[in-house]
Automatic annotation (TrEMBL):
Name used for this protein in its record: Pyrroline-5-carboxylate reductase
Upper lineage: Bacteria, Bacillati, Actinomycetota, Actinomycetes, Micrococcales
Catalytic activity: L-proline + NADP(+) = (S)-1-pyrroline-5-carboxylate + NADPH + 2 H(+); L-proline + NAD(+) = (S)-1-pyrroline-5-carboxylate + NADH + 2 H(+)
UniProt-annotated binding residues for NADPH: 74
Superkingdom to which the source organism belongs: Bacteria
Family, similarity comment: Belongs to the pyrroline-5-carboxylate reductase family.
Keyword ATP-binding: no
GO BP field: L-proline biosynthetic process
Residues of the Pyrroline-5-carboxylate reductase catalytic N-terminal domain: 16-115
Length: 290
């Protein structure tokens, strides 16, 4: 991080934010940011397909350009923006950075939410000195309950990083992490919602196997997972303490937990997340080789 020579950074309220490539992840962040009260007139988005642009326009009342039928759409959206959030797939991020580079104000902060793409890769696609910030968000951003892990690049000032953090705070908890931890963060909180949904699916299937109808089993599982999450957030108890409070000695829960331990569920989770982090490192290498 570097010191700002002068205070040319706008307020979070006034900052013009462009979301370039607004699919599952960027839409989640955008939804959280707007729900936090940011003026829709300060937010612009791009997608590839015109029908997707219509959908976002209807849902959020923002300006949306479709790059599929307008080659200049992404550059036009980036022009005049204070914060530009790149949300295309990792393999397309560097090309997208190059596509918009010429349209950016020198002070515009380029944020990449792509897994496995380093600040240095984005910086190399930009004019020298362009501020860049790498972020690993997650989809609960959509309901302002995301976790967004921020790693500032080489040329971004503290004030610019604070602006990015202030905008993203509308979508959830913003934490700062050293960039070398981003693959681990991606494996834990970036992918984490999928693990929780997977567990919810498994609990639902287990309910069906025990004779419940699927609709009821699904409702029980979903309410239980979301209720447990809210409880975890609302109390000072950690997860292990809350688990113990459910587990009566010689009761029913004890049997389930003992089975999970015996059959290695913790090891499976450790192995799965290690593979997720390893995949991020492999994608970085693939992108460097391409
Ligand atoms: N999904 C997640 O939970 C998380 C994703 N990420 C990262 O977010 C990034 C996006 O992932 P995700 O949202 O899942 O992917 P999606 O496929 O849902 O979103 C990609 C979006 O990019 C748009 N797009 C593609 N090409 C262009 C183009 N040339 N111009 C403008 N828009 C374009 C697509 O438009 P269209 O819809 O019209 O095709 C689509 O809306 C990835 O880099 C991923 O690593 C990070 C953390 C979590
Ligand atoms: O699956 C992926 O690659 C992205 C990054 C983290 C969550 N989704």
């Amino acid at each position: 991080m570097t010191e700002s020579p002068c205070s040319s950074v706008p307020s979070v309220h006034a900052a013009r934010v462009a979301f370039i490539g607004t699919g599952s992840m960027n839409e989640s962040i955008l939804a959280g940011v707007l729900a936090s009260g940011k003026d829709p007139g300060t937010v612009i988005a791009t997608v590839r397909r015109p029908e997707r642009a219509d959908e976002l326009r209807d849902r959020y009342g923002i300006t949306v350009y479709a790059a599929g039928d307008d080659d200049a759409a992404n550059a036009r959206a980036a022009e005049g923006a204070d914060v530009v959030v790149l949300g295309v797939k990792p393999v397309g991020i560097e090309d997208m950075a190059r596509e918009i580079a010429g349209a950016l104000a020198p002070t515009a902060v380029v944020v990449s939410v792509a897994a496995a793409v380093t600040n240095a890769m984005i910086e190399a696609a930009m004019p020298a000195g362009q501020p860049v910030v790498r972020v690993m968000p997650n989809t609960p951003s959509r309901v302002q309950r995301g976790v967004l892990a921020v790693s500032p690049g080489a040329s971004v000032t503290d004030e610019q990083t604070a602006l990015v953090g202030g905008v993203l705070a509308g979508s959830g908890l913003v934490v700062t992490v050293p960039e070398e931890q981003q693959d681990a963060v991606s494996a834990i909180s970036g992918s984490g919602p999928a693990y929780v949904f997977y567990l919810t699916e498994a609990i639902t299937d287990a309910g069906v196997a025990l004779g419940l109808d699927r609709a009821l089993a699904g409702r029980l599982a979903e309410e239980t997972v979301s209720g447990a999450g809210e409880l975890m957030r609302a109390t000072d108890d950690d997860a292990a303490t809350l688990r113990r409070k459910v587990t009566s000695p010689n009761g029913t829960t004890e049997q389930a937990i003992a089975t999970f331990d015996r059959e290695g569920l913790r090891d499976i989770v450790a192995h799965g997340t290690a593979n997720a982090a390893a995949r991020a490192a492999a994608i970085t290498q693939e992108l460097r080789g391409s």
